[in-house]
Design goal:
About 0% of the residues lie in helices and about 55% in strands. By secondary structure, it is mainly β. A hairpin with a 5-residue loop joins strand 10 (about 85-95) and strand 11.
């Protein structure tokens, strides 16, 4: 389903507002770990859900993007050698047209 988004401006002009087509069926989300979940193991597989795309990357604590692997309908990142404390994870999906879609920030705690 396509949704039309209207960009509103604060200027008063006689021009019609510019419209952009936004596909509401595109998504990328860090499924696991859940928000504020505590991780107690030494290795963890982060699970990312995404709509049809060419690839997914993940950034942990605003570090450089690292590629995820695709298996069983999800994207996975095998996370290891992490330090105790609070961490932030963000995923980005590579769209077919070369653009990216970025997930909401997910926080988790490592014990």
């Amino acid at each position: 389903m396509l949704k039309l988004a209207v960009k509103k401006t604060t200027k008063t002009t006689n021009k019609t507002p510019k419209t952009n087509v936004v596909n509401v069926n595109e998504y990328v989300v860090v499924d696991y770990p859940k928000n504020l979940e505590t991780i107690t193991s030494r290795h963890y597989s982060v699970r990312v859900g995404a709509s049809d795309c060419t690839g997914v990357d993940i950034s942990i604590n605003d570090q450089p993007w690292q590629p995820c692997r695709h298996a069983v309908g999800y994207w996975w990142f095998d996370w290891h050698s992490y330090q105790p404390g609070t961490h932030q994870l963000v995923a980005r999906m590579h769209k077919h047209n070369g653009e990216y879609l970025i997930s909401k920030r997910r926080r988790c705690k490592v014990a």
